[in-house]
Structures are given as C-alpha cells and as structure tokens.
Amino acid sequence: xxxxxxxxxxxxxxxxxxxxxxxxxxxxxxxxxxxxxxxxxxxxxxxxxxxxxxxxxxxxxxxxxxxxxxxxxxxxxxxxxxxxxxxxxxxxxxxxxxxxxxxxxxx
Length: 107
Fold this sequence. Notes:
By secondary structure, the chain is mainly α. The protein has one domain. It contains 2 helices and no strands. The protein is elongated, with a radius of gyration of 43 Å. It starts with a helix and ends in a 23-residue tail after the last helix.
C-alpha cells in the first residue's frame, strides 16, 4: 500500500516539477519578448530622431549651397572689388610675341 502511495507522490512531484519548469520557461520567454520589444522601440525612436536630424542638416546644406552660389557670382565679386578695394578692370591689350629664329634648334 505504501508503495502505491509513494508512486502517486512521486508522480505528483514529477508533474509539479514539469509544471514549475514550464512556468519558469514561460516567464523567461515573456521577459525576453518584452526586452526585445523594448529594444526595437528604442531603435525605432533613435532612427526617427536621426532621420529628423538628417532632414534638418540637408535643409541647412541646401541653404548654405544657395548662399555660396549667391556670394560667388562674378558680378558681385567685380562690384566688391571695384567699390571696396578700388580695383579696376584692365583695358584689353594686344600682346605680340616675337620668336628669334636663331634661338630655335632643329635636329
């Protein structure tokens, strides 16, 4: 009689141990799922913030490019050179180059 009772107790303990292990595994999986979910949310928020920064920097880059094009126009540079630096555009002149035929060596 005791043997049958011990078997039942042993089966109950075994079933309890299996149930406890499954319960702990389930809790572990749930914690792991929440950790992964939280991590992906943080990554998405970081990606969105970086995309906003990229858009802001691209807009600043376009503004700087337009400003550079505006400031480097030749008519503006000519105007500043003549007004602030008292520079004048030289008159066109003709340049004549005379080559001495005796200085040229022909092999």
